Amino acid sequence: MNGVKILFVVPYPTGKAPSQRFRFEQYYDLLHTHGYRFDCVPFLTDEIWGILYQPGRFLLKASGILKGIIRRLTLLFKLREYDFLFIHREACPVGLPFFEFIAARILRKKIIYDFDDAIWIPNYSEANSFFSFLKGYGNVKHICRYSWKVSCGNEYLCNFAQNYATRVLYNPTTIDTENYHNKVKEHRDDDFVIGWTGSHSTIRYISEIIPVLQELETTHRFIFKVISDIPPEFELKSLVFKKWEKDTEIDDLLSFNVGIMPLVNDKWANGKCGFKALQYLALGIPALVSPVGVNSQIVDHGINGYICATPLEWKTYLLELMNNRNLLQNMGKETRKKIDEKFSVRSNGANFLSLFEHKA
After folding, report:
1. How big is the CA angle at 320 (ends 317 and 321), to the nearest 5 degrees?
2. 179 belongs to a structural domain
3. Residues 353 and 185 sit within 8 Å (Cβ to Cβ)
4. Domain range spanning residue 201?
5. pLDDT band for position 35 (50/70/90)?
6. What pLDDT, on a 0 to 100 scale, did the predictor assign at position 283?
7. 181 domain residue, yes or no
8. 170 and 208 assigned to the same domain
9. Does residue 285 belong to any structural domain of this protein?
10. HEC profile for 289-335?
11. Using one digit for the tens of pLDDT, what is the confidence trace for 94-150?
12. CA 108, 38, 94: angle at the middle one, nearest 5?
């Protein structure tokens, strides 16, 4: 045991949110192996997480947030026993960053601040629009200033953090290819499945290629499968919805022949860390992506997928894979290599552990 103790201060319950699961929760075994001790304290309870993105339930949500604030205030009295505070996104989702200020400036704790979205840009669900005025989007730069190190999911986020912090580390979102994404698609099924996975916050990006899919429906038979927490509202004959479930996530994704990740080239999308594309490639599924942000670093055009900048390119490359199963299978064999080398827990393990080293 190295005696170092870490407190993970996070928004969501353990095992629920992709940003937590794939940025640090899957490194818990590695931390144990290297002798670190740690605790994790979420802001939201399982009950509030379960209704957070449902419409209404205002009083229950407000009560859950208030209780979360009280838990954070109580937590301040326990910080002395920890060597590092790993704060994901923010300690408290509303108001000023009081927790980070007290922890860093008064208690002199070393904060490692981690984020994987452009969270300084207003972005909220319709279900929680009432609470949006309480959200401290400007807090991000202040928390960066309070932090000992800042961990960012791509270079765009790093560039932002470097305006306010001196120790900024590029720490990509990664895939556990040994214990979780440990299967590979064989592409032998009769049906051709174009797939998309994501949450309510990103489902709007699918609209960018709906006209392409509608056109393809007139000449080709395929399934467009959407895995999400809410059903989409698109006019497509080929649409099949599957509610996201952690227990079936991998098998559901393996039903895809091609995974898509369309995006609009705006500031919010540039902050995305390409998680959909990473999941597709890790499972042997070619990825078709928009040339936005980190996508072009993840997908090697013509090798493990395609980068599609126009509707014509989306149509052309979908047809290419739809009509050529040999190409689909060969491209599927290339996808895993990129993840193993650049975006896996194993390849990034030393980089993640460096967050807790005292050298810069």
Report:
1. 95
2. no
3. no
4. 193-342
5. very high
6. 96
7. no
8. no
9. yes
10. ECCCCCHHHHCCECCCEEECCCHHHHHHHHHHHHHCHHHHHHHHHHH
11. 889 999 999 999 999 999 999 999 999 986 544 444 445 456 678 999 999 999 999
12. 60
Does residue 184 lie in a domain region?
A: no
Cβ pair 335, 284 in contact under 8 A: yes
Q: Which two tokens stand for residue 274?
A: 């390409």
Q: Which 8-state DSSP code applies to residue 136?
A: -
Kind of pairing, strands 149-152 and 168-170? parallel
> What confidence score (pLDDT) does residue 340 get?
94
Kindly provide the b/e burial profile for residues 220-237, where b requires at least 16 CB atoms within 10 angstroms of the residue's own CB: eebebbbbbebebebeee
Task: CATH number of the domain at 304, please.
Answer: 3.40.50.2000
Please state, as a whole number, how many other Cβ atoms lie within 10 Å of the Cβ of residue 323: 11
In three-state secondary structure terms, 200 is coil
| 9 secondary structure, DSSP code | E
Residues 269, 280 within the same domain: yes
Domain count for the chain, please give it: 2
pTM: 0.89
Are 198 and 338 in a shared domain?
A: yes
Number of Cβ within 10 Å of residue 217's Cβ equals 15
Looking at the fold, whether 167 and 27 belong to one and the same domain comes out as: yes
Task: Give CA–CA dist 113/18, Å, rounded.
Answer: 17
Q: Is the domain of 109 the same as that of 256? A: no
Residues 164-220: pLDDT tens digits?
A: 999 999 999 999 999 989 999 988 878 999 999 998 888 999 999 999 999 999 999
φ, ψ at 29 (rounded to 5°): -65, -40
